[in-house]
Amino acid sequence: MSTNDGLGFKASVAVRSLAVCAAGALLLSACSKEEPKAPQGGAEPKAAAPAGPKRGGTFVFARPEEPATLDPFVPNDNGSIYAIEQVCDSLVEPDTTGEGLRPGVAESWEISEDKLTYTFKLRDTKFSNGDPVTAEDVLFSLKKASADSAPLGFLYAPIKSIEAVDPKTVKMTLKQAYTPVLSALSAYSAAVVSKKAYEAGADAFGQKPVCTGPFVVEEYSRGTRVVLAKNPDYWEKGKDGQSIPYVDKVEMRYVADSNARVLGLKNGDFDAIAIVPFNQAESLKSMPEVKLEEAPIFRLDYVYLNHKAKPLDKKELRLAMNLAADREAIMKVVFFGYGKIPNSYMPRVNFHSDAVEMIPYDLEKAKEMVKASGYKGQPIKLMVDTGNAPSKQVATILQQGWTEAGMKVEIVEFDVGTAFDMTTKGNFMAYVSYITSDINDTDELATLQADVRGSTKAFFSNYRNDEVGKMLDAARKEPDAGKRAELYAKVQDVVYHDGYSVPLNFSPSLNAYHSYVDGWQTAKNGWWWLKDVIRNK
Amino acid sequence: MTTTTLAPSALRAEVARWSPSLWIGIGLLAFIVLAGLFAPWLTPYDPLRQDYGAALRAPDAAHWFGTDSLGRDLFTRSLYAIRTDLVIGFWTTYVPMLIGVLLGAYAGLKGGWFDAVLMRVIDTALAFPFLVLIIVILAILGPGTQNIYIAVFLVGWTMYARLARAEMLVESGKDYILAARTLGFPTARILLRHALPNVINSSIVFSMSDFVLNILLVSGLSFLGLGVPAPTPEWGAMVAEGKDFMQQAWWISTLPGLMIVLTGVALALLGDGLTHRLGDRHVTGH
Amino acid sequence: MWVFRFVGLRLVQAVPVLLGISLVAFLAIHLVPGDPVRIMLQGRASDAAVAEIYARLGMDRPLLVQYARFVGRAVTGDLGTSIIQRAPVATIVGERLVPSSFLLVYATLLSVLIAVPLAVWAAARRNRLADHLIRLGGTVSFAMPSFWIGLILILGFGLTLKWFPIAGFGRGFGGHLHHLFLPALTIALFLAPLLIQSLRAAMLDAMTAEHVEVARAKGLSESRILFKYVLRAASIPVVTILAVNIGWLVSGSVIVESVFSVAGLGMLLVHAVSTRDYPVIQGLTLVFAVMVIGTNLLADLAYALIDKRVRAE
User: Fold this and answer.
1) Strand pairing partners for A217?
2) Residue B202 placed within a domain
3) CATH of the domain at B216
4) pLDDT over 90 for what percent of chain A?
5) B188 falls within a domain
6) Cα separation of A419 and A433, whole Å?
7) Residue A431, pLDDT score
8) B: neighbours with 3+ CB pairs under 8 Å?
9) Orientation of helix C129-143 relative to helix B201-223, angle to 10°
10) Residue in C with minimal Cα distance to B244
11) Are residues A74 and C43, on separate chains, in Cβ contact within 8 Å?
């Protein structure tokens, strides 16, 4: 059975975040404008305590998603991606928070004046099979990453050529200036793999990848668990100046059932669990030996609306749907108070404005708007993913409000795959879902979601507002951050009040761990860095 | 020919032959059907009406089965679900029975290639675990009530066809069939007018346990998320909705499930009683 | 050497059914409305990638050729490749076979353990209170949905008493026994009533059989008679009941595995349906059906071993 968790959307998470980065990259060439930062850790001025952080132990960690494969050039589901992040490094890596970038397999890089040539200096590090990392491996990996069949292949389309200057130096030339290229290279799908090991057999590689990341796969049992062992050759140093990871092993269990995860944590079978269902958070909070992490991530839960599907082409009706959406009830009943009622059509990333006025819950006004829209009782089909209990609850609450406002609503269920397929093909009316971004820049999602000129037709909404398009173009050219913020705030206001969608919640990621665990952190992109975890037990 | 009208005395004689389990079964089932029919008068609540202030209430005098996470009264929903489950259970039992008995009896009477082909089709269908076959068909068609009907209609008739065929093979050697054949009656007429009343008994007996199995099937599919869509009250879906709240609200899953058990017991007792009344025959499930 | 002839004969008899099964499994992927590959890839693959998968699956050839290839491969144990999991279906299914088989055998043993004493008791106390109670219990047990019973067991023995784990397969033989106890009990609770019913009937028949009467006349104690003659005679219906109901047992395990998150074939099926992993669905359809036929064959064989007269047929 698919997961019934608060965040039980399996494959689609990644699908959507990919699309975000993808379309962003294709349309406006800006996937992340962060400058590379120095590696985290090690830079703390504090005098090293004599004992230092505790090392060793096996960290047992339960999560609802199962990796389909650990071959970085294949998957697009979080089950796989989050596991690959622990095992395979790319040239550039996201930093601990997920908001910036840091060096990975590339120790450093230089960017030419015209921003067309990037020269990467490779770190003197080894693959898990003991072979040194060479330019040849990087070339091989990036070729696989940019293949048509690769999950993020299109991200690397602006790359003209990659060549080996010497065994430890790689030069990359772009077709045109493409600021987000470093961000693109930090993706899991651009992992640097051992050419020799991969060519020996991709299927075997998918079970035991040979990479340079902090962990090495020791055991891969499909459907139950993945056991990771510390990579003794990993380059990064911890607080004590020794190489990390701190723990010897990580046992990543696949536990789809949320009751079983929570119970396992309480019983001490697990040191940590990912994705605590919102309804069980309270019971964990009351336990002193357990810590609950409420991690803000770049995510907005919302109802996709297809503006091309009658009667949703009428702005009045879309606004009525917003006015009759009892978000307080949804926040209480579905999210148990976790998150924030949104005043935007997109996740809270850097240029988010809190000043945009929220659409209130007002049934009387909604009734007027329904009348004003000329609605004639056409059934509104509200789509949810099969087996996703929270989505179903959301739909049921919306149905009640919309029905009271005078609309006729039918809830239809499809499995995630079919539902998303129907959405991409424009074959839907309203869909309870969400969007995530792995990039901390408003530009991508604003453009992706609100600019109908893009390949996804304003993220499948067919939303059309020429004024918004102009503002987005201006914001992209604007060098001044203050003025950009103003423009994006205006876009947020206009799009949100055009009834672009029915936003529901800026929902966080809830995770829990025992208090003897240190260094647990969920990045804003959704995954956790197990290399930094310390098990004080 | 069977008697079609029952004189009061005959009726009394008939009733006198009913076993206690038949009595209890009929009584329970009547009770359940009436509760479903008169649900709106039996409870002050609306099965779809959400009341967020009253969410996750434990069972008490106002809410006999408690409330779910949306504050809907679970007793009300369980009563209205009788309409959903019993109706789907009825059609998914008796439409396949009709198809199966006709096909099976015809095959048994006619023999030849039709019989051979039909038997191979039946053997094939029965080689699959029933639920697996239904799930695979739903994987092709997509979930939902309508597709459950299609899936069960496609597969469910096979057991009845096998039963009816076996009965027909016995029947077809009997004098009245031979006589009808000698008189040159068309096969269809022999089948419908003469043989059918005599071959349908074992199917009727089997249909009672099949009814139970079909209610379990529909609620099971809804539990897996492949069945009746929200917010229609349905027992299996209600049990599934409570799964995430087991540690806070045990009643959401457990109490609606009792309704399934009650209905199942009623039908099983009825079936038991019918078996004794119509003659002892061993019938097994899917 | 009658065993080989017996098995060979039964296999030959099974050929038409096996062909029918393979046809159903084959069609499972071809009857999908729309483009199954695009649905599997969730509509985000390039045309080239779709074409490549079509070629890899051989779906660009005529249907009849595809069917012949499908059967030819299936015979050699090749069930195709999962698009979602990027691994041979035979491997994926093989990994899931162990927990499922363990569960089925465990559940069968548990239900025999429950059913035999109760059936003996019911038969010995025929039409007395114990007999009636056991039969009523069986009726109730039969009507209980396994997903509901599973949740009740989780609530009682898992969440409240914490005696048993509520999910997973566990490690090592002891771990499996511990983890799968509640799921096996759930299955046993709907299998045992059937066993009790037929065991009871068979024992009542056997108790009045001639050789038993003779033994009784010779002065053998009732308990010796029970164990020496009656139980042996009654073991045949047990084998038959188990074989006849293997399909039903497997159906039950699909739901039970989902309730208890046991990574077996049933959970794989539900998961494959929700991710539209058609090659896996296809492979599982085949494997499930072969399991049923294989079990029936084994039951026939066991039957023949117990009762020599069957061999002559």
Assistant:
1) A228
2) yes
3) 1.10.3720.10
4) 52
5) yes
6) 10
7) 96
8) A, C
9) 50
10) C151
11) no
All residues of chain A having their beta carbon less than 8 Å from the beta carbon of residue B240 are: 4, 389
Angstrom distance (rounded) from CA A446 to CA A347: 10
Within-domain flag for B217: yes
The model's pLDDT over C208-243, given as tens digits with 9 standing for 90+, comes to 777 777 877 887 777 777 777 777 777 777 777 777
* Cβ pair A280:B247 closer than 8 A: yes
Return the residue in C37, C38, C39, C44 with the most chain A beta carbons within 10 A, the one to mutate for interface testing. Answer: C44
Burial of residue C36, with CB atoms counted within 10 A of its CB: 0-12 exposed, 13-18 middle, 19 or more buried: buried
What CA–CA distance (Å, rounded) separates A76 from A68? Answer: 9
At C39 the pLDDT is 65
Residues making up chain C, counted from first to last: 313
Edge-to-edge strand list for the sheet holding A159-166: A106-111, A117-122, A169-174, A159-166
C169 touches chain A (CB under 8 A): yes
The pLDDT of residue A28: 31
Q: Supply the range of the domain harboring residue B232.
A: 64-281
All partners of chain A with 3 or more CB pairs under 8 angstroms: B, C
CA–CA min distance B52, chain A (Å): 6
Q: By CB neighbour count within 10 A (0-12 exposed, 13-18 middle, 19+ buried), where does A147 fall?
A: middle
CB contact under 8 A, A263 and C159: yes
Q: Which residues contact C188 (CB under 8 A, 6 or more apart)?
A: C107, C108, C110, C111, C114
Q: What is the pLDDT of residue B94?
A: 96
Mean pLDDT of chain A: 84
Q: How many distinct structural domains can be found in chain B? A: 1
**Number of neighbouring beta carbons within 10 Å of residue A26:** 16
Task: Please give the span between the terminal C-alpha atoms of chain C, in angstroms, as a whole number.
Answer: 15
Give the H or E element holding residue A220: strand A215-221
Reported as a pLDDT band with limits 50, 70 and 90, residue A15 is: very low
Whether C19 has its CB under 8 Å from any CB of chain A: the answer is: no
Closest CA to A151 of A14, A289, A344: A14
Nearest CB partner across the interface for A260, out of C42, C92, C167? C167
* pTM for this model (two decimals): 0.83
Cα–Cα nearest to A312, from A502, A535, A536, A76: A502
Residue type for position A39: P
Which of A294-308, A407-421, A441-455, C153-167 is the most confident on average? A294-308
C309 contacts: CB under 8 Å, gap ≥ 6: none
Nearest to A332 among B52, B144, B225 (CB): B52
- Chain B contacts of A387, Cβ < 8 Å? 224-225
Cis (ω within 30 of 0) for the bond into A245? yes
Whether the Cβ atoms of residue A316 and residue A450 lie closer than 8 Å to each other:
no
Q: Do B69 and A393 touch (CB under 8 A)?
A: yes
CB-based contact C148 B265, cutoff 8 Å: no
Closest residue by Cα to residue C193 from C231, C117, C137, C235: C137
User: Average pLDDT for residues A293-301, to the nearest whole number?
Assistant: 92
Q: For residue B240, is it within any domain?
A: yes
Numbered residues of chain A with Cβ closer than 8 Å to any chain B Cβ: 1-2, 4-5, 258-259, 262, 277, 279-280, 283, 326, 329, 332-333, 384, 386-387, 389, 392-393, 395-397, 399-400, 411-415, 418
Element (H, E) at A496: helix A481-497
Q: Is residue A89 predicted with pLDDT exceeding 90?
A: yes
